Amino acid sequence: MTKVEIKVENIVASATLGKSVDLPQVAPALEGVEYNLEQFPGLVYKLKEPKTAALIFGSGKLVCTGAKSIENSKKAIHIAVDKMRTLDPDIPHEFEIKVQNIVASANLDKTLNLEAVALDLENTEYEPEQFPGLVYRLGDPKVVLLLFGSGKVVCTGAKTISDAQLGVEKTKERLSELDLL
């Protein structure tokens, strides 16, 4: 398989604390938190290090976005939870963190004729009037790739970095097989 260098752009991870959180009570523990119930049903806590945003909901669910590594997304969730625990000591120390989505980009280093790709490649959607990229859905790994005429590719929906890598490599291989690269 042809190796393609990918760059992780964003990781979305979630955690469930298993207990509801009194948002007005824990908000003061988080410096620079945004809390406006009319606009959003949770707290938005932006961390500088790692540069991420944690969305914290009253249900006890947290969603971390913006991390460039799985390690940093977990670290950001732990930082937010540890700070919340200073005002609510009942927040559990043990909770599961799940990666929900990994977005990665790559460059195939060749321009693509998206109209030809749309005709020959299976499981694609291409409506240039609505979106300049071609949407390609892979079954294994279960990821979605956005292909652009420039040869740039965005892979989304991966749960692991290796799935993102494999999705991009399989796509490049399939395009080569069909003489589209």
List keywords for this structure.
alpha+beta, TATA-Binding Protein, 10-stranded antiparallel sheet, 4 helices, 24% helix
Provide an overview of this structure.
- The chain has 181 residues and is of the alpha+beta class.
- It folds into two domains: 13-99, TATA-Binding Protein; 108-178, TATA-Binding Protein (2-Layer Sandwich), CATH 3.30.310.
- Helices cover 24% and strands 35% of the residues.
- The protein has helices at 23-26, 70-85, 114-120, 161-177; strands at 6-16, 34-35, 42-47, 52-57, 61-67, 96-107, 124-125, 134-138, 143-147, 152-158.
- A hairpin with a 4-residue loop joins strand 8 and strand 9 (143-147).
- The chain starts with 5 loop residues before the first strand and ends with a helix.
- The mean pLDDT is 95.
Short description:
With 181 residues, this protein is of the alpha+beta class. It has helices spanning 23-26, 70-85, 114-120, 161-177; strands spanning 6-16, 34-35, 42-47, 52-57, 61-67, 96-107, 124-125, 134-138, 143-147, 152-158.
C-alpha-based Rg, rounded: 20 Å
CATH hierarchy class name of the largest domain:
Alpha Beta
**Low confidence ranges:** none
Helix content: 10-25%
Mean pLDDT comes to 95
Number of helices: 4
Residue fraction in strands: 25-35%
Organism: Methanobacterium formicicum (strain DSM 3637 / PP1)
GO molecular function, one term: DNA-binding transcription factor activity
InterPro entries: TBP (IPR000814), TBP_archaea (IPR033711), TBP_CS (IPR030491), TBP_dom_sf (IPR012295)
Keywords: DNA-binding, Repeat, Transcription, Transcription regulation
